[in-house]
Write a structure and sequence with these properties.
Order of helices and strands: HHHHHHHHHHHHHHHHHEHEEH
Shape: globular
Mean pLDDT: 90
Low-confidence stretches: none
Distance between the termini: 38 Å
Helix content: 55-70%
Strand order of the largest sheet: 2-1-3
Number of strands: 3
Radius of gyration: 22 Å
């Protein structure tokens, strides 16, 4: 097998260049997007940050909106959300470097186009990743005997609880932690994982009763939908989600189909096969086993929850917290086998991402100026707004609302046609008839 080992001086230069390129790509990713890399969920996050301490929904935990709120004394909510993503990336780099914990692997993983898209997104996945790295680091310290059982339980429990306060899907990490502990039964550290995982699950139950039910007693009735999608549909979405997520270069398939998707899915499938082969042939350490087990359990739980809970189709974003660790372990094996050639994956991914972003480029700053002028001309820049959407599945209907929320975060979505008769209700037609939005060729 071809291998390349660079002198430490040249390797550091490559690492610095890779870090700078990643920062640039994270920024370009949202500036070259028509709405600044936001989604319908971003509307809720930005609004919750803006109106806090008022709680107007419990669809997502308060952790991410509160982190956004921390920086609103100097920035508005939108720019604060971008700072949170950049700081999340900065934290994992500094932590990994100082602790000598998977630094090269995290460097390459973070440079993958899918992770660049996560750090540039106004979504909570970016904030989970630093806590995830801390979880892996703490687990390794427990397994290596550097932390006592009591401290191990305390540290792991705290991290799991913090992640639940950012994303409810962190509950799957709790289940994965318990499962790993049970697999390690009779080993010195097994109790640390089982007990901390159970504490995390117990905290979620307490959180559900004390927070979710208190502010939204109909939460389960709203989101629990048995048999929403058939098994063939869910399995197809699982395959597509995994194939694009594990494609190190392109994480989005063409929604119109076509031959190009065979290549996109094919690269992802080959990557997964390579991971399985390497993990089997190269024995995983116990700490690596923890990372892989917790990640796989998270993916499995993400699939099965769809049978009873209304969520988006599995994609790189929803799977991000459960694949970061797998990428880390995979790149660790690659560095041992092919050395510094592993950095080529990161550079190729960044180049692919730049080409994709440039070819599909919108212009967020231009659109922001246009929507700001519109809101000011209508004298509603600081007002609470309602935006009518006929079909939330059609992305083009909600994109205008997402753009508005980056300037005025107090936007609520309504699906009632009769609301459009009121003068203070915005619609896509009302906005686009008075301004032009420069849209992306691709998303």
């Amino acid at each position: 097998m071809i291998s390349l080992k660079l002198h430490s001086k040249y390797e550091k230069i490559i690492q610095i260049v890779l870090i700078l390129m990643t920062y640039v790509m994270v920024i370009l990713r949202f500036l070259l997007n028509e709405k600044g890399r936001t989604s319908p969920d971003s509307i809720r996050y930005l609004r919750q940050s803006d109106i806090f301490p008022i709680i107007d929904n419990t669809v997502a935990p308060l952790g991410y909106p509160l982190f956004i709120k921390l920086f609103t004394f100097v920035l508005d909510d939108f720019w604060s959300s971008k700072l949170v993503g950049i700081l999340a990336y900065t934290f994992i780099l500094i932590f990994a470097y100082q602790k000598k914990f998977y630094f090269k692997e995290i460097l390459v993983t973070s440079a993958l186009f899918s992770l660049v898209s996560i750090f540039s997104y106004t979504m909570s996945e970016a904030l989970v990743i630093p806590f995830l790295v801390l979880l892996f680091y703490t687990a390794k310290a427990i397994i290596d005997g550097k932390i006592s059982t009591g401290k191990g339980i305390a540290y792991l429990s705290l991290l799991l609880i913090l992640m639940i306060n950012v994303r409810y899907s962190a509950l799957f990490l709790c289940l994965g932690t318990v499962f790993f502990g049970l697999l390690s039964y009779r080993k010195a550290y097994w109790q640390s994982f089982v007990i901390s995982g159970m504490i995390g699950i117990g905290f979620y139950g307490f959180y559900k009763i004390s927070f979710i039910d208190y502010f939204n007693e109909n939460y389960l009735d709203t989101f629990l939908e048995i048999g929403l999608k058939s098994t063939p549909v869910l399995l197809t979405e699982l395959f597509q989600g995994l194939a694009t997520t594990f494609n190190p270069f392109v994480h989005i398939a063409d929604p119109n189909g076509g031959v190009i998707n065979y290549g996109i899915y094919g690269i992802g499938v080959l990557t997964m096969l390579a991971m399985v082969i390497i993990f089997i042939k190269t024995k995983l350490s116990e700490s690596e086993q923890f990372i892989v087990v917790v990640s796989v359990v998270g993916i499995i739980c993400s699939y099965f929850i769809q049978y009873v809970y209304s969520v988006n189709a599995m994609d790189y974003r929803l799977l991000a917290p459960f694949v970061v660790g797998i990428w880390m372990v995979f790149f660790s094996k690659l560095f041992k086998n092919i050395g510094s050639l592993t950095y080529a994956v990161a550079f190729l991914s960044l180049m692919t991402g730049f080409a994709f972003s440039w070819m599909s480029k919108g212009d967020y700053l231009e659109n922001r100026n246009a929507i700001t002028a519109f809101l000011e001309s209508e004298d509603i820049k600081d007002e609470t707004l309602k935006f009518y959407i006929k079909d939330s599945i059609k992305l083009d209907e909600v994109q205008v609302a997402e753009l508005i929320s980056t300037v005025n975060p107090r936007v609520y979505i309504t699906f009632k046609p009769k609301d459009t008769l009121r003068k203070n209700i915005l619609t896509r037609w009302k906005v686009e008839s008075k301004m032009k939005i420069k849209k992306n060729n691709y998303q």
